[in-house]
Amino acid sequence: MRYAATVSDRVIGVWVRPDDGDPERIRQEWQRSVGNDPNLELQILESPFSSLITPFADFVDAIEERDPAQTLTIVMPMAIPRYPFDSLLLNQRTINMRAALDQRKNRVFTMVRYYLPV
Question: How far apart are CA 61 and CA 112, in angstroms?
């Protein structure tokens, strides 16, 4: 979120939750982590089948339909594992998400690396 806020004055954090997820707990965590910055917005999307990619891709499409002239930058986290073997399991969602979003339209993608603690 900190990086995204340096790129744009309007940042939307997106959380895709299953039907049984608690949106109030998510909002509380957001508040604790981000605070009351009016430029950082939280959108909670429901996913009836625990799918991450489809609800998020539909959300991005809806934003583009409202304002087709704007350029969207999608900032995606990429964990850097402690051990090389862990990279086989990590970041698969990020890779699949980018592939799904890349098929739809021209978009700017930024992968932000973060290192897992030792």
Answer: 22
